Amino acid sequence: MTTSIRKIPAIKRFLVGDVAKRMVATGIVILAFIIGLNVLAPYLTPNKPTGARADGQLFRPFQEPSKDHIMGTNDIGLDIYTRVLYGGRVPLLVATFSTLFALLLGVPLGLLSGYLGGFLDKLISLIMDSLFAFPGLILAIAITAMIGPSILNTAAAIAVIYVPVFFRVVRSQVLSIKELLYVEAAKSIGESTLSIVFRYILPNTIPGILVILSMGFADAILIEAGLSFIGLSTVVPPDASWGLDVAIGRNYLLSGSWWIITFPGIMLIFATLGFSLISEGLNDLMNPKLSE
User: Fold this and answer.
1) How far, rounded to the nearest angstrom, does the alpha carbon of residue 103 sit from its chain's CA centroid?
2) Of 66, 71, 142, 216, whose CB has the highest number of CB atoms within 10 Å?
3) Rounded to an integer, what distance in angstroms lies between the CA atom of residue 33 and that of residue 40?
4) Residues facing 73 on adjacent strands
5) How far apart are CA 123 and CA 112, in angstroms?
6) CATH number (domain holding residue 196)
7) How many domains does the structure of the chain reveal?
8) pLDDT tens per residue, the chain (292 residues)?
């Protein structure tokens, strides 16, 4: 009986780790599939996302899913299947640019603010807390409305939302790491501040950064779709984008043309799910307290 009880923590650790690895693997498979569809789109369909057939003729609008058009056609006669294949390029680009912008700005600020402390830390923390207090989508709407919708502008607007997230996560880790003995030893041998921060402290913050990074991708895709839904689309019709097609499809949902909004919406769900699974899995794998 005692032996069985002692084995329970080990079993829990195994189960938690196994589930976390499966979550990460599943998320990677989903994202690889989606990216593969967008990369191989020219080879998977003969049609064009902004035109139609090779001869330039449009299809009949509002065709239901059938053998000829497995996902139907939209309001102007464009093939939904073709637009789904090409439509992930814009949200994935926006997500990539926005998370990289937020990473390159939020992480260094969090490192230096947490390590140096004092007035600089209070000032940067006050600014970041002010940004963090705004609802993300509302802040993105305000910024995009001021600077105009485009891929880079939308990415910059979403990056502003996630800079405080990277900052807070990194700063909180730095506040505990900088008190460790190996950091004190680095100070004693005369290492510079930048060397201590980026050589000794930064590597220990990478697990938390990876979790926030994958979560940022998922949020950026949803925010980009949300901006398109309310009329601040990153692209101009008839360019293909999942968020734009969802916004167009809502106008015809009540009239029975459900397929226009459904298939782009499913792709948005799967893309978000892939990044969310990776984020949750990494969080479980990199946080040993979850297995206790």
Assistant:
1) 12
2) 216
3) 10
4) 79
5) 12
6) 1.10.3720.10
7) 1
8) 444 444 445 545 545 558 888 999 999 999 999 999 999 999 998 888 886 655 566 788 999 999 988 998 998 888 999 999 999 999 999 999 999 999 999 999 999 999 988 888 899 999 998 888 888 888 888 888 888 888 888 999 999 999 999 999 999 999 888 888 888 888 888 888 888 888 889 988 998 899 899 999 999 999 999 898 888 888 887 888 999 999 999 989 888 999 999 999 999 999 999 999 999 888 888 775 554 5
Task: Tell whether 141 is covered by a domain.
Answer: yes
What residue type is assigned to position 176 of the chain?
A: S
Q: What is the value of pTM for the model shown?
A: 0.84
Q: Which two tokens stand for residue 97?
A: 């640019």
Cβ–Cβ under 8 Å, residues 82 and 48: yes
Residues found in the chain: 292
Distance CA 273, CA 97 (A): 19
For residue 6, is it within any domain? no
135 belongs to a structural domain: yes
Contact between 196 and 180 (Cβ < 8 Å): no
Q: How many CB atoms lie within 10 A of CB 130?
A: 10
CA 113 – CA 166 distance, rounded (Å): 12
Paired residues of 79 in beta bridges: 73
Burial 163-180 (b: 16+ CB within 10 A, else e): bbbbbbbbbebbeebbee
CA dist., res. 265 & res. 257, Å (int): 14
Cβ contact 271:92 at 8 Å? yes
Domain residue limits at 149: 87-291
User: Rounded distance, CA 222 to CA 243, Å?
Assistant: 8
Q: Is residue 75 domain-resident?
A: no
